[in-house]
Design goal:
Organism: Salix suchowensis
Radius of gyration: 30 Å
Strand content: 25-35%
Strand order of the largest sheet: 9-8-5-6-7-11-10
Helix content: 10-25%
Number of helices: 8
Number of strands: 33
Keywords: Hydrolase, Protease, Serine protease
Shape: flat
Pfam family, one: Trypsin_2
Protein name: Protease Do-like PDZ domain-containing protein
Distance between the termini: 57 Å
Biased composition (Polar residues): 16-28
Structural class: mainly beta
Length: 577
Amino acid sequence: MGSDGKRKKRGRKSKTQTTLDPTTSTINDEVFSVNNVEIVNSATPTSANHLENRRGRPKKRLRRSPEKTPPLINGEIGVGTPVEGVARVVPAMDAVVKVFCVHTEPNFSLPWQRKRQYSSSSSGFVIGGRRVLTNAHSVEHYTQVKLKKRGSDTKYLATVLAIGTECDIALLTVNDDEFWEGVSPVEFGELPSLQDAVTVVGYPIGGDTISVTSGVVSRIEILSYVHGSTELLGLQIDAAINSGNSGGPAFNDKGECVGIAFQSLKHEDAENIGYVIPTPVIKHFIQDFEKKGAYTGFPFLGIEWQKMENPDLRVAMGMKPDQKGVRIRRVDPTALESEVLQPSDIILSFDGVDIANDGTVPFRHGERIGFSYLISQKYTGDNAAIKVLRNSKTLEFVIKLSTHRRLIPSHVKGKPPSYYIIAGFVFTTVSVPYLRSELWLCNIDYISGLWYYCVDIVLYGKEYEFEAPVKLLDKLLHSMPKSPDEQIVVVSQVLVADINIGYEELVNTQVLAFNGKPVKNLKSLANMVESCDDEFLKFDLEYDQIVVLRMKTAKEATVDILTTHCIPSAISDDLKP
């Protein structure tokens, strides 16, 4: 729970009569359970008969306490102390459901099979159109999803309609009509302001019933979404968000939903820092699904940029004193923007909104925000006007926005990992889930200086900084694909056999070339090996390592290795011709 931070003063109490502070009334300590507004007046007017003049010294009169009328909750008398002039608004907690999910994750160490299934529970809430919102990480790699309403003993099978990996939102529905009986959908509110009160409702650890925590909005800015490895608008609140709260709504004091709880900050120097997906991001996800029938994602500019806060740098780049903007460092060759944008271009404005030298744009009164917020408000396929300064000349372009593809993808989106096996060498592609699985990283965003927490993952160990493949991590943070189908192919492990003696210690090592030809992706490597007529198979690896195998012996040994390890096929289904 958030703390008001006030300290009690010692000493004598003031003789001045104090009045009841509505903010400290016991009304805040009640459990809110319905969606209604009731303004309760606690003071009664003074009778005119008591205002007559009397001679002599006035008699002392006992102060009458005003009548206390119990507040109406959903049309019924509830328990609580009303406060004069205070609007009582309570969130629709009956719309908050508990989400039960059975997950079956891919096994990146043994890509031909999946891991043992496990169960999890989280929160969700009902919205219009017979739909339910929750977090994407709550139903990731789902096998079965069930929902249970508040106060019910029945679990209803749910269908996953869409999963927004980048924004960490999933959309569900239930076919059983009984589930929707007596449930009113949650209404969305506007983006809250700083210090606005919020109430987070959900089913966190520590009990089975619904839980309510409250706090205030302490920060509004572009945040790192751990699950999606993206940066979008987010709210920071001081209400407790624990495991199981994921997917639960955050209500304002009007009973409207202003966000979805999705992650928290875990650090020894931080306490009660939680994060909420705000309504602009939620509405973008819903409208994207409604317009296109599927989730298409948030568009991004395929560029890396530099701040222009140094005056000498601005002069050297040909900027006038009244011009502001950011410099393009690199452009993704596979992005549509590469056709018009160039390195060292100065982006002056996006869709008519001027960009400051620090990369921010006006947001609300007294607030600024990163200009990526303007891009995230668009949809994939939308056009945007961009103004740049190139060689001291101002140019204007209209670009088509699209999703950004990374060289090392952040997610496999439910698909099993691709693999190819020859002579016991297991070749696969690198992704963020692969790195997390193989390196046991606590959080892949920690490498970027971020400490956000979303799911439980164990650290690699004390030898992490010595044993982690630094080149793979460098490619994750800085490399851009040269072609749309480029992949990082690695030898994930070697299944020991007589043919691969001396190569047993190879692990997580990138494959650069095969028989002198560059390896573009895993499919091209598999095709080259399968169609090879040379006597030897030669693999060029990073750090100037090479692997040489006799072709005929390697293919014969592969059959025995597959049988020994009960592997159904030497090649994954997506790579088969």
